[in-house]
TrEMBL record:
The keyword Transferase belongs to this UniProt entry's keyword annotation: yes
Designated name of the protein: Glycosyltransferase family 4 protein
Superkingdom: Bacteria
A Pfam family of this chain: Glycos_transf_1
Organism: Microbacterium awajiense
Transferase listed as a keyword: yes
């Protein structure tokens, strides 16, 4: 039972499962920890994405208590949120807008819209997500606030002398665009001794993973790619420390936590100019942005990075000089804490 002073933070089951790490799960866990560090009582409630499971959780929350719920769970039970809207104070954390995905089912889009509209507040993770919530989901502007993901303090990346260590972080899935990356690297060729490490779950979309591997093999660059799978925090930190460049070839992206983490470490970025990525990049001039789903242009940017020492030096210096300007998890938690305090 959650008391009226405790924030019930409702998250998808398996939020701490190392085999299912995603940007959303990292956000949920880091935010919960940072709220507790600020002194906010938090009870993290893991729940399966079904109406019955969500109903059990809300039935256990006392009148007037604050609730923060992950959007993935909220869309599973819009009836529940609507039924309890006048009894508890609910904020929905919108990591992404389902309608942004080309293959999204209409019933999922509709359910998510109802969940968002029934909340007292919707927390968006980027300005882009906020615009989508207002323009496409019909959420009133005054009910949507932006809280960008934070970053952890981290040392500067060591990198390599020739800029050859490329890193791509994100679950291996169509919206993350690793197939675009492989095609771009095929165009770069093998004259330069580059190597790309792809970090992220390969369990969510096996056919796509197989497709990416097949394209790499046919392109003759299979030995230049490493699929590292999900890494724990220590091993992920090691991957960042060895990287010269982080590549984010996403087709859809609400923010780009891996981009922010890279820049926090002084690592430049080549990424798609899509969604919330420009906000994650910021104004430091430490990134090259290309249109999404354009392997030719992505390959051109990667080729320039690998062959132009002056470009590498400029981008790296800019990343290192602005790395401390990235938002922290403490700052993100402070904003969410204020939102929770003001829920009505």
């Amino acid at each position: 039972m959650t008391d009226a002073a405790t924030l019930a933070f409702v998250v998808p089951r398996g939020v701490d499962d190392p085999a299912r790490v995603s940007g959303g799960s990292v956000f949920d866990r880091r935010l919960a920890d940072a709220l507790v560090a600020r002194g906010r009582p938090v009870r993290v409630v893991e729940v399966g994405a079904t109406p019955a499971a969500l109903a059990d959780v809300f039935d256990d929350i006392p009148d007037g208590a604050p609730v923060l719920i992950d959007g993935l769970v909220a869309r599973a039970g819009p009836d529940v949120l609507e039924r309890h809207a006048g009894r508890v104070r609910t904020a929905v954390l919108a990591h992404m807008v389902t309608a942004a995905f080309a293959d999204a089912a209409e019933h999922e889009i509709s359910a998510e819209r109802r969940a968002f509209r029934s909340a007292s507040t919707v927390i968006a993770t980027s300005d882009w997500t906020q615009r989508r919530l207002i323009d496409d989901e019909g959420v009133r502007r005054e009910r949507v606030v932006v809280v960008a993901p934070g970053t952890d303090p981290a040392p500067v990346s060591l990198g390599t002398p020739d800029g050859a260590a490329l890193l791509c972080v994100g679950t291996v899935a169509p919206h993350k665009g690793q197939d675009v990356l492989v095609e771009a690297l095929r165009g770069v060729g093998t004259d330069h001794p580059w190597h790309c490490t792809i970090v992220g779950s390969v369990e969510g979309s096996p056919p796509f993973v197989a497709h990416v591997r097949t394209r790499a093999r046919r392109a003759g660059i299979e030995d230049r790619l490493s699929f590292a799978g999900v890494l724990d925090r220590a091993h992920l930190e090691r991957a960042y420390r060895r990287a010269d460049l982080v590549v984010a070839p996403s087709r859809v992206e609400s923010y780009g936590m891996a981009i922010a983490e890279a820049l926090r470490r002084g690592i430049p970025v080549v990424a798609s100019d899509v969604g919330g990525i420009p906000q994650a990049v910021g104004v430091g001039g430490a990134a090259l942005l290309v249109p999404p789903d354009r392997p030719d242009l992505l390959g051109r940017a990667l080729g320039a990075w690998l062959t132009d020492p002056g470009l590498r030096e400029r981008l790296t210096n800019r990343a290192r000089s602005t790395r401390r300007e990235r938002p922290t998890w403490s700052e993100a938690a402070a904003r969410v804490d204020a939102i929770v305090a003001g829920l009505s």
